[in-house]
Amino acid sequence: MRVLKGGVAALAVAALVAMPVPVAAKADKEDIARALAALAILGVAVAKARNDPDGWDEDRYGDPFSPAQGVICLPKPKQCFKDGRFSYRWTRRIFGI
């Protein structure tokens, strides 16, 4: 049985090797330029992620502030949180919403 399994595996490998491989098209200057642009964009994204030590998105949330102990308010979405949970009372009190 072991010889039969080995023979079947050898035939499968031989069949895969014997299959013709499609010829890849040569890369032209436009393809190379696109690949380099993609690498540059990826490099900028990685560099930006490394340079943002706290990971806080100021453009989306603004600079958080604390009007009272245990309360944190985010100015851009106009939301306040008390002890880590959304607080309708503090949101209404600070932003009038």
Can you describe this structure?
By secondary structure, the chain is an alpha+beta fold. The protein has a 4-stranded antiparallel sheet with strand order 1-2-3-4, with helices on one face. The chain has helices at 2-18, 29-51, 58-61, 88-95, and strands at residues 65-68, 71-74, 79-82, 85-86.
How much helical structure, as a percent, in the residues? 40-55%
Largest sheet: 4 strands, antiparallel
Q: Which stretches of 5+ consecutive residues score pLDDT under 50?
A: 1-5
Mean pLDDT across residues: 75
- Radius of gyration equals 30 Å
Query: What is the spatial order of strands in the main beta sheet?
Result: 1-2-3-4
Q: How would you sum up the global shape?
A: rod-shaped
Oligomer: single chain
Q: Number of helix segments?
A: 4
Give the tally of β-strands. Answer: 4
Compressed to H and E, one letter per element, the order equals HHHEEEEH
Structural class: alpha+beta
Estimate the strand proportion.
5-15%
Q: Termini, distance in Å? A: 77 Å
Question: Could you give the topology of this structure?
Answer:
Elements: H1 2-18, H2 29-51, H3 58-61, E1 65-68, E2 71-74, E3 79-82, E4 85-86, H4 88-95
Antiparallel strand pairs: 1-2, 2-3, 3-4
